[in-house]
Amino acid sequence: MTARAGTAARTPSEGRRAERRLGWWLCAPAALVMVLVAGWPVLYSLLLSLQRNDLRFPDRRAWVGLDNYATVLTSPFWWQAFGLTLLVTAVSVVLELVLGMAVAVAMYRTVVGRGLVRTVVLIPYGIVTVAAAYGWKYAWTPGTGWLAGMLPAGEAPLTEHWPAVGIIILAEVWKTTPFMALLLMAGLALVPEDTLKAAAMDGATAWQRFTMVTLPLMKPAILAALLFRTLDAFRVFDNIYVLTNGAQQTSSVSVIAYHNLIGGLNLGVGSTMSVLIFLTVALVAFVFVKGFGTAAPGRDPEGRR
Amino acid sequence: MRVRAALAAAAVAAGLAAGCGSDGPATPVVNLYNAPQQNLSAIVERCNGLAGGRYRIVLNTLPRGADDQREQLVRRLAAEDDGLDVLGLDVTWTAELAEAGWIREWTGAHAERARRGTLTRPLDTATWQGRLYAAPYNTNVQLLWYRSDLLPEPPATWSQMMAASARLAADGRPAYGEVTGAQYEGLVVWFNSMVASAGGSMLSADGERVDLGAPARRALAVMRDYARSRAADPSLANTKEDDARLAVESGRAAYEVNWPFVYASMAGNRPGMLRHFRWAPYPGIDGPGRSPLGGANFAVSSYSRRPAQAFEAALCLRDPESQRIAAVRDGLPPTLESVYDAEGMREAYPMKEAILAALKTAAPRPVTPTYQNVSTVTAVALSPPGSIDPDRTLASLREQIAEALQSKGVLP
After folding, report:
1. Which of A151, A179, B39, B163 could serve as a FRET partner for B231 with CA atoms 20 to 30 Å apart?
2. What is the interface pTM, i.e. ipTM, of the complex?
3. Distance from CA of B209 to the nearest CA of A (A)
């Protein structure tokens, strides 16, 4: 009995194993490319982060263990940037979620000129971030800007901490709300009309239908959208680089890493920051996937249920 | 085998024939990377004409901001890019690029020609550990620029400035005295000159250790007092060179500490005010002040494939006539003393005697390969100048600069 069951299980598994081997061979080129373009730089950053490595002192390179990590993790500048990054991420993602949902519902329910509405909404996302950031920068600079012109004379919001942070968040939200709306609209399409009609028949108000039917059914799409945007927002760089370049304590972790790597030419400390950013991003993704059950893109839907 | 050798020989012969052909060998190109300068192309054209086919300079313009220029240069030098030949460097970058091995030392006849007739202070900015690494192109000093209709006698010290502003403010007249107090290089420049004026320095002479003794404490106290006095513009903590210039031109401020470009600007923008627009030496603390020292030098990249032509080109770009063109047409003070008496200088530089006098005592910025780090942490520690606490700020400056010198610690 057991022996027969064993052979029965083995016979198809021979074929399956061959198939799997073929599968491995088929995806080997792709995996190799991934290792080369993603794995090696990550590993190289990790190696650099364990070195004293300053391009200006080629003779003083040395392995220093975790010294760079101690330096970065005890630096007030790093924690200042980390705190600001968390703040920008949290505020902008929440605003984008609320606005994006409103835009998604509007786009989904539009009857006339649907194509036009969707195109118009997507324009901010289509503009290159750096170009848009320069637009914001000039708009808020006294003398050149229409927004600064509406402020009392002598106000230069980009030269003060909180106004500058506000403008950075505004630029982020303006830029990526359409992206959020697009992802959420795909989620809206998941909600069957019949369910909504049934709820309406049972006497649910529009708000009740939205919060008790639409939102729960959209949860996977919302979580995926939040995950994407949180990871993106945590790495915010271009907007800050253009708007303030980190002046007035507005550096994000990516900006401070850039200043240490490219401005300071300190590959050790800069790589340490990159590794810390990588770890934080990995942690955020882990929490989303494990904690909230966000589906990883391309994951087998059967495996999830 | 023999056939192949014959073919190779034929190819070589053909190559030689082409090389000596009627069009002559291609002129070697020397790539010049420099900050934006309006009439630099005229200087380049002149040198290309003089070169007579020995080299042809191609002008590549770097970004406008000094940090962006440095970033682009060091990024390409770190990658051993051989597309750079002559580099226009800010005076504070010499040590960094020399220590990293990115620029060539000037020796022999080239060094001799770069040194001859060059003013001492600018020449020092091109020197690192006793070796010459660049040929001085232009220099710069700050002066006190004031409106003689408001201040009949220019103040000579920072405390006289505060007193003069208090008097003007009491009379309800423009009282602000502008100085570069924003969190950037200009704030470091101000601090460095204040420390030097008080008789101290930021670093030891060899650039290895922090100095910042009692004179630095005195300098910090004066800066703090000034930032809290009637002389300080409310936007002092955001003022850069151009804001200072605009504040005086718009009539909001009575005087400013700034580079000589403000004179040409005043002549162009507010010719009516020019009659009362005067200059005086950089203000001191107790005695005479020591002006900041600016300027640019030409270096030759270590990765240049045509160093001989690059040195020649650099020397032509900073010869007396080139410097005269840069001075008269672009407002860049020369580094060759003889050019100050050249044609057109009297009209373009009515203040040239004051510049030459200031150059004798100007305070160079600290010379160290990690100047970028030192400058960044200094600017952050001093900003905003009104919240300087002399003892506490000095202690934190000493600690952070010591770390920066070792390229340890984190840059903000």
Report:
1. A151
2. 0.76
3. 17
